[in-house]
Amino acid sequence: MAAAAARSGFRRMFSVSAFAPPKPPTPRPQADPSPNLFVSGLSKRTSTEGLRKAFAEFGEVVHARVVTDRVTGFSKGFGFVRYASTEEAEKGREGMDGKGSIAHH
Fold first, then answer.
1. Does domain 36-98 have CATH number 3.40.50.150?
2. Which of 2, 14, 69, 90 is the residue whose CA sits 20 to 30 A from 83?
């Protein structure tokens, strides 16, 4: 008898109606325009100078940096570019978005 009461209590405690339906995904907020770009998908041989030259085609690059592995010295496949203005950064993003390669200097 106690086992039957325990089972029914167990069912009530874990009944499906106790769980709320999943919330719909909320759209990611749009980032404010920025002159800074995060660049991914770089070759291991991409240098900071190569990154700078590739993005300079679209505006004045104030700073560029390829993140490298401390041991090997090769690119970790990503870096950062900062333009003089948000408008130039947008041109650089649009111009380089999906582009397959960057010069290896």
1. no
2. 69
